[in-house]
Specification:
This protein has about 120 residues and is mainly alpha-helical. The chain is about 75% helix and about 0% strand. Helix 1 (about 1-25) packs antiparallel against helix 2, helix 1 packs antiparallel against helix 4 (about 100-125) and helix 2 (about 40-65) crosses helix 3 (about 75-95).
Length: about 120
């Protein structure tokens, strides 16, 4: 379970950094938010910044559940929160598969799927 948590946290952190880059104006918008913009407009930059925050919290949740860190959640809350992260990543994978963006379908959907599986391993662990 520890290895899965570390891999998941690394994945969440990398995707969070991608979202931070989008929020800062990086020209990678074709891989996010439906792929309609090379550089995201202001409202989607805000959404990317918020997404980065949520992904960072997800990383902390799986680390907390695996007892890699003892940051802020009681054990029962970490258990339930990890299940929430698992479901959110599964829904994200489905959304990315349905996206008109080739990048979201071919890159982000597998990443979200992998994060869902890793989070599931941590959740049941």
């Amino acid at each position: 379970m520890t290895a899965a948590a570390l891999l998941a946290a690394t994945g969440f952190t990398l995707v969070a950094l991608f979202q931070v880059a989008l929020a800062a104006g990086a020209p990678w918008g074709r891989a996010a938010w439906g792929g309609g913009h090379s550089r995201l407009p202001a409202r989607l930059r805000v959404a990317s910044a918020f997404s980065a925050l949520v992904l960072t919290i997800a990383a902390l949740i799986v680390l907390e559940r695996a007892r890699v860190v003892d940051a802020w959640l009681p054990a029962a809350s970490a258990r339930w929160a990890t299940w929430g992260v698992t479901v959110a990543m599964a829904v994200s994978a489905i959304g990315n598969l349905a996206s008109p963006s080739r990048w979201e379908r071919s890159l982000m959907a597998p990443v979200a799927s992998l994060l869902a599986v890793l989070s599931l391993i941590v959740a049941v662990g």
